[in-house]
Amino acid sequence: MITWFREVAPIRTKLAVAFGSETFLILAGFLAVIWAGNGGPEGLPVVVGAVTLLWSIVGGYVTWRVITDPFTATIERMESMVAGNYGAPVRFTGYRDCVGRLTRVIDRFREAELARQRAEGEVRAMADREAERSRAERLREAEVRERLDRMIGSLGGALERLAAGVLTERLTEPFAPEFETLRTDFNAAMDRLQEAMRLIATNAAAIGAGTGQISSGADDLSRRTEQQAATLEETVAALDEITATVRKTAEAAIHARNVVGTATQDAERGGAVVSQAVQAMGEIEASSKQIGNIIGVIDEIAFQTNLLALNAGVEAARAGEAGRGFAVVASEVRALAQRSADAAKEIKTLISTSNQQVVAGVDLVGQTGRALERIVAQIGEINGVVGEIAASAQEQSTGLVQVNAAVGQMDQTTQQNAAMVQQSTAASHNLLQETNELAAMIGRFQIGAPVAAPGAAPGRRRGVAGTGSRLETSATMRAAAPARPVTPRAPAPSAAVTAAAGDDGWEDF
Length: 509
Prior knowledge:
By secondary structure, the protein is mainly alpha-helical. The protein has two domains: about 1-120, no CATH class; about 180-500, Methyl-accepting chemotaxis protein (Helix Hairpins). It has eight helices and no strands. It has helices at about 1-5, 10-35, 45-80, 100-165, 180-320, 325-440, 475-480, 495-500. The longest helix has about 140 residues, at about 180-320. The radius of gyration is 77 Å and the shape is elongated.
């Protein structure tokens, strides 16, 4: 029980027990005094007082040992830890009351601080070792820096001379073993760069000559292309006019074919009318013959009537006075028969004349019909010829339209070619200028003895300046300068171009 009160009971419980005991003793003393005053035992207050005093002493000691001493010792341990004493152990860590909780926290803090101090010691030891290593490293770095300074000085001088255009510079002083590869690589790179610059210089001279030739040829080609474009443009205009004329001719031929077709139809209708006229003439001739026959009958009737009248007159004369009236009638009948005979003769004469005229008319109408048939046949032939002419003109018009379109496309293509040629000419001039600039730039370098461009034609090989100092390219570049505008005659290129190009024949291009 005492162990539980000392090590487990919370501080509030401990204080409550202490103050409760003191209060109980005080109340017991008051009750003993009151009881003694009311007739109780006289020595009771003294006994109660002695017990109370003894309990107070025991309670004070217990309170000091159980409550005050752990807190005081804990605070003193905390103060010693603040002063830097982390070696002594912390007491009361086995308690489960507030003091135990506090001391366990303090003990963990002490252990953490001890671990930190051990870590700091290790860090200081490591720092000392690192400082020693750093001093050794600085010494090595100083030595390496000195070697690097010497190497960088040599390399910087070589690079400075390289920047000045001297490609014959080499690093002859040996470097440190770890940097010897850099020196050999630099010398090898300079060898390759010098060789490359020699080849570039030689090829630049050849390119300059070829570029001048290309520029001259491009100028000539541009002029020819412009002339061809102008000629094609005039051709297109002429073809437009011819196409318009042929189109009008085709339209006129179609109109003539239509007119001839109409005339053919009219001639065919005229032939039909003539055929009808011939038929009508034939019918008139037949009618005239019938009328002639009728007139012959009338003439015979008149003749018979005249005979009858003569007979009647003879018979009237025989009758004498009685037949006088009958003789008058017979005379009138004979006169009437005579007039009928005369009229029939005249009609017969007219019909004969009419028959002759009808025969002549039939013959003329027949000739007219045959003429119209020939005219219709000829008009048919003309219609066929005009149709062929119209079809041919239409085909020619269509063909000319296609030719005109093709020539227009050729003109457009030629215009585009002319533009491309102008661009090529400008590009060739720019290339020549850039080649001159490249040659001038290469001329700033000292590249030693010249070399011939591999695979270059003998006429295109150019020497590099004399005694191994600087490349002499200005004369070559001036020789390869752009040619002046060419004339229809063969161009007269400069000497360098002539030597480089020979008989390339740009004028024939």
